[in-house]
């Protein structure tokens, strides 16, 4: 499996915090961006497999959307642990989180995956808190019922975006935002674009981590199983969108995110990818944007809390041709 390594030179976290603070103030009634020591992210409400986001921080873009459309390439199957080895992660300690396609060959259907696993001492001693969200029923009215649950497998398929680290506690970006007043509805895409505007198209900054939607509602999609052969290939993006199922879920939701400010080397990166799960209800999927405009003092207002770190190297694995 072909892979390339690309060193990154991100600005210091305190510089990024100042850039994001200025941007956040224009889109939210109340917001902050600071550098802090990472809290224990294994605890509620985050439920990660390791306490921190520090130590040998890296990102990986594996496969891509071209492996799904115009026709699913069912031979594109990956092991998260093999990807960790390609990312030169230590077998003594590590953590992977991110967003991608579930291992259809393991669960029996196509679905959304939120990888969330760590290991200690070797790649066999795994703590796996990965979640899969799948369509379990689709009515003639096209209303889909979904279920989000833990998945023991360390496999994935088609496409995956990962943030890797040793899982140690260290300095991270802490970002809070409440009561949106601007038009930028996607929290993660808003942060990505803020960095792109500041640093341009020639300086790539890659961030990964977790945010919790603490209050409000957001739109998510969940991929159903692959269409029957007679409905393939997908004709265009609109056909793919029509195939997806869309849902409005309420907080709290845990969101695992990886995003890049730019793609200066033309690696065909997925610029932002965020998959979510709930710890107390059967909901999850691919995060799109919130539907809670800033109305101070109302139950519907949106609120986010994020912990993010910069990747120091990017791996492009099995790039579609």
UniProtKB/TrEMBL annotation:
The protein, known as: DUF1907 domain-containing protein
InterPro entries membership: C11orf54_DUF1907 (IPR015021)
GO molecular function: hydrolase activity, acting on ester bonds; zinc ion binding
Keyword Hydrolase part of the UniProt annotation: yes
Gene Ontology CC terms: nucleus
Subcellular location: Nucleus
Keywords tagged on the record: Hydrolase, Metal-binding, Nucleus, Zinc
Subunit structure, as described in the record: Monomer.
Coiled-coil ranges from the UniProt annotation: none
Family matches, as CDD domains: DUF1907
Keyword Cell membrane: no
Domain DUF1907: 19-317
């Amino acid at each position: 499996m072909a892979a390339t390594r690309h060193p990154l030179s991100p600005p210091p976290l305190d510089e990024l915090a100042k850039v994001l603070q200025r941007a956040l103030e224009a889109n939210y009634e109340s917001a902050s961006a600071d550098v802090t020591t990472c809290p224990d992210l294994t605890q509620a409400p985050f439920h990660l497999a390791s306490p921190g986001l520090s130590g040998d921080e890296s990102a990986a873009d594996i496969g891509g959307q071209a492996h799904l459309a115009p026709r699913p390439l069912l031979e594109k199957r990956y092991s998260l642990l093999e990807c960790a080895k390609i990312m030169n992660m230590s077998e003594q300690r590590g953590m992977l989180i991110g967003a991608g396609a579930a291992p259809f060959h393991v669960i029996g259907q196509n679905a959304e995956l939120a990888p969330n696993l760590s290991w200690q001492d070797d790649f066999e001693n795994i703590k796996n808190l990965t979640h899969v969200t799948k369509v379990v029923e689709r009515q003639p009215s096209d209303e889909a019922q979904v279920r989000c649950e833990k998945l023991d497998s360390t496999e994935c398929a088609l496409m995956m975006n990962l943030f890797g680290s040793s899982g140690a506690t260290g300095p991270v970006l802490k970002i809070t935002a409440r009561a949106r007043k601007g038009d930028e509805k996607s929290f993660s895409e808003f942060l990505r674009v803020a960095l792109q505007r500041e640093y341009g198209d020639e300086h790539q900054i890659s961030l990964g981590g977790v945010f919790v939607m603490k209050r409000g509602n957001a739109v998510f999609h969940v991929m159903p199983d692959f269409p029957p052969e007679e409905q393939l290939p997908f004709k265009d993006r609109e056909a793919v969108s029509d195939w997806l199922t869309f849902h409005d879920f309420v907080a709290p939701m845990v969101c695992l995110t990886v995003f890049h400010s730019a793609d200066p080397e033309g690696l065909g990166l997925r610029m932002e990818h965020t998959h979510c799960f709930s710890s107390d209800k059967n909901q999850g999927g691919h995060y799109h944007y919130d539907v809670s405009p800033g109305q101070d003092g109302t139950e519907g207002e949106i609120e986010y809390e994020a912990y993010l770190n910069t990747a120091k190297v990017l791996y492009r694995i099995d790039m579609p041709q």
